[in-house]
Amino acid sequence: MRFAFGELLDDIGRWLVVGVILAGLISVFLSPHFIEVYLGNGLFSMLVMLVISTPLYVCATASTPIAAALVLKGLNPGAALVFLLAGPATNIATITVVLKVLGKKAAIIYLVSILICSLLLGLIINELYQVIGFDLTSWVVINGDEPQGIVSLLTGILLVILVLKGPVIHWFTARSALAHSITK
Predict the structure, then answer these.
(1) Both 171 and 135 in a single domain?
(2) Are 40 and 112 in the same domain?
(3) Together in a domain, 165 and 183
(4) Backbone angles phi, psi at 40, to 5 degrees
(5) Cβ of 120: how many Cβ atoms within 10 Å?
(6) How far is residue 116's CA from residue 10's CA, in Å, rounded to a whole number?
(7) pLDDT tens across 75-112, in order?
(8) What is the pLDDT of residues 136-157, one digit of tens each?
(9) What are the counts of helices (DSSP H) followed by strands (DSSP E) for the chain?
(10) 110 and 120 share a domain?
(11) Helices (DSSP H) in the chain: which residue ranges?
């Protein structure tokens, strides 16, 4: 419990906030028409997600809300999966580490295998969604009046408190240490 609500949340909290903010910006400023016209609904959108996500330094925690926002705007689930798989695994920092530790040949094999597997899994998930007839955009309430219960409100507040707890404690600890060093 201490690790889950302490160390782990301190590590991913900042990225979760970044992801939620970016997802909010996507939700507000990106039109479904843009996704439909420029990304299409197939292999092309997956290739675009590969191009966007490969150099992008985004961790899995931040990429999840971003991918959800894109899907709700009309991006096909396969392209979102490609973004979720390729982004955290192929960013420039990861590729640089693999290159230095394992060498050029291993880095190329690593990168190509991630890209091919991401595309194949994206194609499979699109086919699966089509066969099942499942539409992710149907989850969104059209008029925006989704009832929020007390449990949703309380868990949201609890998450904000838990995410802010670490930085606030670190700030007070640093401030206290600074004040203590000044008085000496």
Answers:
(1) no
(2) yes
(3) yes
(4) 65, -155
(5) 13
(6) 33
(7) 999 999 999 998 888 877 788 888 999 999 999 999 99
(8) 666 655 555 556 788 888 988 8
(9) 9, 0
(10) yes
(11) 2, 9-29, 32-39, 43-53, 60-72, 77-89, 92-102, 104-132, 150-183
